[in-house]
Amino acid sequence: MLSRIAPNVFRCAICLDNHAEDSIACVDGCNHPFCRECLRDYTKSKVAERRFPILCPVCITETDKRDPGVVGDDTVQQIGVSNEDYEIFEELQITSFCIPLHCRRCEQTMFVDRQEVQEAKIISCPWPRCGFVWCKACQQEVQVGTPQHSCDGSSELHHLMQQHGWKNCPGCKTPVQKSEGCNHMTCITPSCNTHFCYIEGDMIIKGGTRNEIHNAITTHYTGCKLFDYN
């Protein structure tokens, strides 16, 4: 609200001097009145400190003020800050909504929407001629059209195992690829010693004596194919 003391005169909320209304500058959201010189000096000091948003100097003194006024772009232009200060102010405006994104492939740095980057798990370079895609968490390149990315490679491995019919050891879950020979597999992971069938991935026996292992294998393959060509 304007602090009027006479027609066409107002009192600046900073210097408390009386000024003609043609030198007034009001802050957006609260309309606290200031002379342009005081608000310009205040704005310049906040720009120099790289503070953004620039809050109304009166509102910040009111402890119960929940929604303080803000010195907006129109007001900054109205009070006549220098070109250098205005460029810094514009940069602060941009960085409040955007963050710089650097692509290591094209080596371009561009401002992108802050919220989009914060919410995204996979980042795409916005440079039209680049198209590089990477994981925000692990920074690894993500190939378009491939299985869903996982930082530890588990998703890609699962897809590869399904694609090639590989099996996990039922004892320790270590991935196993059969290259040749029979369907009886013995896990070589230390302390595992699980014997299993490669056809369905079923456990035959885990550990045991030589005779116990032999009997378990013989029993299993009475109803299953030991060799694929049987």
Walk me through what this model shows:
- By secondary structure, the chain is of the alpha+beta class.
- It has three domains: 9-96, Zinc/RING finger domain, C3HC4 (zinc finger) (Herpes Virus-1, 2-Layer Sandwich); 103-164, no CATH class; 167-222.
- 27% of the residues lie in helices and 20% in strands.
- It has six helices and 14 strands.
- A three-stranded antiparallel beta sheet has the order 1-2-3, with no helix packed on it. It has a three-stranded antiparallel beta sheet with strand order 12-13-14, with helices on one face. A two-stranded antiparallel sheet has the order 4-5.
- Strand 6 and strand 7 (109-113) form a beta hairpin.
Shape: rod-shaped
The profile of the biggest β sheet is: 3 strands, antiparallel
| CATH topology category name of the largest domain | Herpes Virus-1
CATH architecture grouping of the largest domain: 2-Layer Sandwich
Mean pLDDT: 91
Derived structural class: alpha+beta
Order of helices and strands: EEEEEHHHEEHEEHEEEEEH
Q: Give me the Rg, rounded.
A: 35 Å
Poorly predicted runs are none
- Could you name the CATH homologous superfamily of the largest domain? Zinc/RING finger domain, C3HC4 (zinc finger)
Domain RING-type: 8-228, 12-59
Keywords: Metal-binding, Repeat, Transferase, Ubl conjugation pathway, Zinc, Zinc-finger
Organism: Agaricus bisporus var. burnettii (strain JB137-S8 / ATCC MYA-4627 / FGSC 10392) (White button mushroom)
Catalytic activity: [E2 ubiquitin-conjugating enzyme]-S-ubiquitinyl-L-cysteine + [acceptor protein]-L-lysine = [E2 ubiquitin-conjugating enzyme]-L-cysteine + [acceptor protein]-N(6)-ubiquitinyl-L-lysine
